[in-house]
Amino acid sequence: FNGTANYSPEIEITVSGNLQKSYTLNQNYPNPFNPITVISYSLPDLQRATLKIYDLTGKEVFTLVDELKPAGNFSVAFDATKFRSGEYFYILKAGNFSQTKKMVLVK
């Protein structure tokens, strides 16, 4: 990623008011992807949530979400046009919950 100021690789797409009983972090779809993928997650109650992308070395390369979120289902699109092909990890943290999933960018 070259740090272009007006490049925004995230677009929040969906919020559902359905009440959740647990945290979930779903596998991105499609996976492998080129260059856009969607990551979905659920929160059981009002939480500060972060969803961050990391490269294979563990370096944080982008923050998709970092805000207070109500209970519900959420989806965010990640546009990796400016990123190199390879494996990446995404981590959802909210309250005491933390989960990691792997995704593959193929160009």
Number of helices: 0
> Strand sequence of the main sheet, in spatial order?
1-6-3-2
Using only C-alpha atoms, the radius of gyration works out to 13 Å
Largest sheet descriptor: 4 strands, antiparallel
Q: What value does the average pLDDT take?
A: 87
Instruction: Tell me the total number of β-strands.
Output: 8
Description:
The protein has strands at about 10-15, 25, 35-45, 45-55, 60-70, 70-80, 85-95, 95-105. The chain is mainly beta and about 110 residues long. The radius of gyration is 13 Å and the shape is elongated.
Short description:
The protein is 0% helix and 57% strand. The chain has strands spanning 10-16, 24-25, 36-43, 47-54, 60-69, 72-79, 86-94, 97-105.
Question: What's the structural blueprint in terms of helices and strands?
Answer:
Blueprint (H helix, E strand, L loop, with lengths): L9 E7 L7 E2 L10 E8 L3 E8 L5 E10 L2 E8 L6 E9 L2 E9 L2
Antiparallel strand pairs: 1-6, 2-3, 3-6, 4-5, 4-7, 7-8
Can you tag this structure with a few keywords?
single chain, 107 residues, mainly beta, 4-stranded antiparallel beta sheet, 0% helix, disordered N terminus
